[in-house]
Amino acid sequence: MNRWLASARNLEEASYLLAEGPDIIDFKEPKRGVLGALPPETVRQAVALIGGRCQTSATIGDFFVESSQISQGVLEIAATGVDYVKIALFSNTQQAADCLISLQPLAARGVSMIGVIFADKQPDFSWIHLIKQAGFKGIMLDTAVKDGRGLLSHLSLPELDNFIKVARNANLVSGLAGSLSIQDIPKLLSLKANYLGFRSALCTAGNRCYRLDPKAVLSIKRAIRENPRIVEN
Ligand SMILES: O=C[C@H](O)COP(=O)(O)O
């Protein structure tokens, strides 16, 4: 079955999305940035509300990976009970690489982390191996600037295909996101990432900071579930 992730910013949205059956509900506050964090207590309540009926993820916020706050943020979000903690990797400096590797003990303690790299920030796919080395469970491609230009405005299908193959060979879960539209779905499903992620396309007027639009959610759900291409699980 093709798999999809839907982002929720509060308990009401989480509850609504749960009924639509995404594979992962991702908690974030879009008004606080591309991977804006929700308060850990809100995430904890949302995870309890989901009660294991689908997988969950949450972000630690828009820290640069060099920040000393990263480990603390990961621990706080992991303690909420989410399945995956998402960490934005905005830069690929040596300092960022060192910080990434410093998260290895958390992975060894069972924290499942997903690294997010950005298609519009000159992504370096050699980082996939570093992410693996740090013990992360997966990697996601997203866009950092939400200006209406989606993932496919920044990377071609062959480039995305290469990203997914490298991630798969490293035995990492792979996800694609970045203002994905309903028209992108058939093209992206054919690449067989583990899941496609959505926020903007689920919202009124395609604005990720607005309310969820039930018609839009239904359209995305159908486009994912009714498309015959099978995403590898
Ligand atoms: O994790 C996925 C993101 O929430 C995607 O958000 P977006 O569709 O607004 O780029």
From TrEMBL:
One MF term in the entry's GO annotations: lyase activity
Domain of life assignment: Bacteria
Keyword RNA-binding listed: no
Pfam families linked to this entry: 4HFCP_synth
Keyword annotations of the record: Lyase, Schiff base
Catalytic activities: 2 D-glyceraldehyde 3-phosphate = 4-(hydroxymethyl)-2-furancarboxaldehyde phosphate + phosphate + 2 H2O
Enzyme Commission designation: 4.2.3.153
Entry-linked InterPro entries: 4HFCP_synth
Active site feature: 28, 86
NCBIfam families xrefs: PRK02227.1-5 (NF002576)
Role according to the record: Catalyzes the formation of 4-(hydroxymethyl)-2-furancarboxaldehyde phosphate (4-HFC-P) from two molecules of glyceraldehyde-3-P (GA-3-P).
Protein name (record): (5-formylfuran-3-yl)methyl phosphate synthase
Organism of derivation: Nitrosococcus oceani C-27
